[in-house]
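Notes to self, UDP-N-acetylmuramoyl-tripeptide--D-alanyl-D-alanine ligase:
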Amino acid sequence: MALWTSEEAAKATGGRATQAFDISGVSIDTRTIQPGDLFVALKDVRDGHEFVAQALDKGAAAALVSRIPEGVTADAPLLIVDEVLPALERLGAAARARMTGKVIGVTGSVGKTSTKEMLRAILSGQGKTHAAEASYNNHWGVPLTLARMPADTDFAVIEIGMNHPGEIAPLAKLARPDVAMITTVAPAHMAAFESLEGIAREKSDIFKGLVPGGVAVFNGDLEVSDILAAAWDGDTIRFGEDEACAAQLTSVELSDGATQGSAVIDTTHLEFRLSTAGRHFAANAVGCLAVAYALGLDLEKAAADLVLWAPPEGRGAREQVQLAVGAPVDLIDDAFNANPTSMAAALEVLAKAEPHDTGRRIAILGDMLELGEKERAIHEGLAALPWFAAVDAVHCVGPLMRALYDALPAERCGVWFETAKDAVPALQTLVGPGDVVLVKGSKGSKVSLLVDALRELGQVPQQTDER
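result:
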């Protein structure tokens, strides 16, 4: 069965199909396009119209365009519209309108993508579930995720992000979630917001998209939880460790590579296990169980299925790198993003990890970006985190991390590097057999270069998460 016929797509977008075609998927990237996809010629760094001919050569069923591109004949399979991005938004809206299942929207300063994947894990056992494969949470990612959604989807998980005020509400109104979840509100993107309260108000705008009778699920352990509660006058569920939370995390125990948790959802007592370590993961797991409760699903099965989840690459995923000699290095890849909240959570995971043989706990920390005018003080303040006491060496990358480096006691200080690129040649001397190595920083700090370089020191990485 086609995802979209040319007639359906033309009606949804208000465009004109040059010929009849059936679409099995939707793509914006010729590098990953599959036969049968509709190629959407978005304009970014380069104009997607430049790649239409290549997309069709690779087997695209058609291309969504605003003009006939150079090198493409007028009788090629095209869906011609006035503007491409608004047309993609209309296609996403049409996908949402024809779907009779439930939509879950997820936002938050930390943990959106990990939580989206947790929800995928627990919802897939209770119905046909759709979610983006990557972190598609912006002005083109949300409509793209919706446009890819099959009509017979039972549950769709839509991740919604923001960098600046005013971004979340229109995306939430496009997705029209039945349940909307806010993982947490933390001092991220402070360069664009005056205060944590401002971030909370922007995050709470996800509730503006809730359908009538929808349920708002949010973290109840925050200073700004009351701001979130006030943003929706319908049903709400708080999750967290606070006794006032209807979905309460009653206990959490971290071990090397696993998390054991207990929760009470309304009056139901549940035990769950995660195949990775992280107190922050346990809190979001309870939020996911609150979503399952709001949807009227089998909570026992949802709790049991949490063990199927593992964090995505760059967000706490753990793997082994076998060096040429000696015990393997355990790599904790948390290089996709960073703010003070997630930094503390990642360092706790490292502190609980058990090195091999005579190995050490090593932290390689990159700059936390978009924190506003207090950024240097925030970096310096990390030195007070108790988890550093269990870390053998802290290597810092970037001009902001110099503030942390200078504040650490001498016995913890490793080496400071101006850039991640500068640190790459030194990795062989910083990391040794048996070590557990955490690499964490904002994406812009480019510490992912160090993750790649660590992998290259060894052979094929082996996943250590229990599945």
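- The radius of gyration is 23 Å.
- Confidence is low (pLDDT under 50) at residues 460-467.
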